[in-house]
Amino acid sequence: MGGSSMVVIGIIAAILIVYLGFVLVKPEKF
């Protein structure tokens, strides 16, 4: 159970990092 929860947290963190990256690179689109 603990391993699966860590995977979910990792996926969410990766999505947030990619989203923030796009916001910082192209702020005019937001």
TrEMBL record:
GO terms for cellular component: plasma membrane. It comes from the Bacteria. Keywords: Membrane, Transmembrane, Transmembrane helix. GO terms for molecular function: P-type potassium transmembrane transporter activity. The chain crosses the membrane at residues 6-25. This is Potassium-transporting ATPase subunit F. It comes from Paenibacillus sp. SYP-B3998.
